Amino acid sequence: MEDGESSVGIYDSSYKELIYQEDFSEDEHTLYSNQEKQQVSMSMVRPESIGNHYKLLTVSLAVLAVILLAVDIGLGVYYSKLTDGQHITDISNEVAKLQATYNDAVQSRDEAKKQLASEISQQQFTKWEIEHENKRHKSYEKLSDKIQLEIAALKSHIPMIKEGCRHCLPGWTFMNSLCYYFAFLDNMSRRSWQEARQFCTKRESDLAVIDSRETHLAISNLINNYQDRAREISISGFWIGLRDVEQEGIWKWVDGRTLNEGFWNDGEPNNQGNEDCAAAYPRSNPFMSWNDAPCNYELKWICQMAPRSSSES
Predict the structure, then answer these.
(1) Burial class (CB in 10 A: 0-12, 13-18, 19+), 252
(2) Do 194 and 298 reside in the same domain of the chain?
(3) Which in 15, 92, 94, 291 has the greatest CB count within 10 A?
(4) Does the residue 154 lie in any domain?
(5) Could you give the residue ranges of the DSSP H alpha helices within 84-212?
(6) What is the pTM of this model?
(7) Residue 187 lies in a domain
(8) Peptide bond into 269 cis (omega under 30)
């Protein structure tokens, strides 16, 4: 009770001080007096409420302090466990395992790269080997084709050789009642028109005179069968006994007769570069097989001679 009375005394003194702080007008004083009365009535309730709030705040702070203390103790314990080395050792072991796994992966990658490089190198080598084998195969195909052509030519030549054995010298071919020599052999070098004629005259013959359609077609068929298709057409011709050296454009055979029917290629003879000698070339169209060429040009040749009489054989 003494506490309550003292509290009331304090509030009464406060109330009196509020009444007499300043001078107000009467209206304002009256209004203010009413407000102060209300405040006095309310302030007599607040001290208890404020005390309760303080108690609640104090309890809350105490609980918070306890919680913080518990957290601090827990962290201290956890830190002490960490500092004993167990967790650090576990982490270090995990890091070491990860590093080892990474190193293994890097090593596997490097080995895979080496293996890939080796495979690529081997693949390139295999590619080169295949290209080499393809070239060899093509070369063998060409050689086979050439042999097949030679076999076909020999087969077609057999009847003429049989007849030639009775009427012609060895190595000569009997066609259309005459003996012909064709310089087919590769070991016989090409010669100029004059050198080719000398070869023939030394064997009591001369360069071929092709004065009939039948003779021309037979000769054309024979040189086509022996044609080496890998050789350029410009060096595949055969000198024949025809030229126009006496008068340009007047073609004469070596026996002095003037040419009646020729089997010139389109645009021939054109006399480009003083082309005064004639040669027969292997062409699919036998009626377009002749060209004029410079007489010093080197080609194969065809010799012609009369057959031997039956009494000589």
Answers:
(1) middle
(2) yes
(3) 291
(4) no
(5) 86-167, 193-201
(6) 0.51
(7) yes
(8) yes
At 191, is the secondary structure helix, strand, or coil? strand
Q: What is the DSSP string of 205-249?
A: -EE----SHHHHHHHHHHHHHT--TTS-GGG--EEEEEE-SSSTT
CA dihedral 62, 65, 71, 74 (to 10 degrees): -80
Residue whose tokens read 């300043």:
22
Q: Give the span between the Cα atoms of 162 and 61, in whole angstroms.
A: 137
137 domain residue, yes or no: no
Domain assignment present for 130: no
Q: Which two tokens stand for residue 281?
A: 């070339």
Last residue of a domain, one of 57, 80, 103: 80
What DSSP letter does each residue of 33-82 carry, written as one string? HHHHHHHHHHHTTHHHHHHHHHHHHHHHHHHHHHHHHHHHHHHHHHHHHH
Per the structure, the count of domains in the chain is: 2
Cα dihedral across residues 136, 140, 141, 145: positive or negative: positive
pLDDT, tens digit, for every residue of 176-213? Answer: 889 999 998 877 889 999 999 999 999 999 999 998 99
Domain that holds residue 209: 168-305
What is the Cα–Cα distance from 44 to 102, expressed in whole angstroms?
78
Token couple for 167: 């009427």
- Which domain-ending residue is among 45, 80, 115? 80
Residue range 153-163, pLDDT digits in tens:
666 666 666 65
